[in-house]
From TrEMBL:
Pfam family, one: Zip
Membrane topology qualifier: Multi-pass membrane protein
Top-rank lineage group of the source organism: Eukaryota
Organism lineage: Eukaryota, Metazoa, Ecdysozoa, Arthropoda, Hexapoda
Keywords tagged on the record: Cell membrane, Membrane, Transmembrane, Transmembrane helix, Zinc
Name listed for the protein in its UniProt record: Zinc transporter ZIP11
GO molecular function: zinc ion transmembrane transporter activity
Length: 120
C-alpha cells in the first residue's frame, strides 16, 4: 500500500511541476529567449526539486524535536501575511464579500478542527 501512496505523490508532484515550468518558460520566451533555451531554463528550475526534497527529508529527520515549533513559526508567518497584506487589500473594494469570505474560511477551519478531534 505504501508504494501506491508514493506513486500517487510522485504523480501529484509531476502535475504540479508542469504549470511551474510553464511559469518559468513562457515569460522567458516572451522576453526574447529562444524556445529551446526557455525550455531548458524551465526544466532546470524543476531539477533542483529532488535534490532539495532529499535535503528537506534529512533535515526533518534530524530536527524532529523542533519541528512543531518550526511549523508553528511558518504558520504564524503565513497568518501575518494574510492579516497585514491580503485582508486590507480585499477590504478596499469588496468589503462585504471579503468579510463573508473570512466568515466562511474561519467556520470551515473550526469545523475541520472539531472533526479531526472527534476522529482521534
Amino acid at each position: 500500500i505504501f508504494s501506491f501512496c508514493y506513486r500517487n505523490l510522485a504523480i501529484g508532484i509531476g502535475i504540479q511541476n508542469f504549470p511551474e515550468g510553464l511559469a518559468v518558460s513562457l515569460p522567458l520566451h516572451a522576453a526574447g529567449f529562444s524556445t529551446l533555451r526557455s525550455l531548458w531554463y524551465g526544466q532546470l528550475s524543476g531539477m533542483v526539486e529532488p535534490v532539495f526534497g532529499v535535503l528537506g527529508a534529512l533535515t526533518v529527520a534530524l530536527a524532529t524535536p523542533v519541528l512543531p515549533y518550526a511549523l508553528a513559526f511558518a504558520a504564524g508567518a503565513m497568518i501575518y501575511v494574510v492579516v497585514d497584506d491580503i485582508i486590507p487589500e480585499a477590504n478596499t473594494k469588496f468589503f462585504k464579500l471579503a468579510h463573508f469570505g473570512h466568515l466562511i474560511s474561519f467556520s470551515r477551519l473550526k469545523m475541520s478542527t472539531r472533526l479531526i478531534n472527534k476522529v482521534q
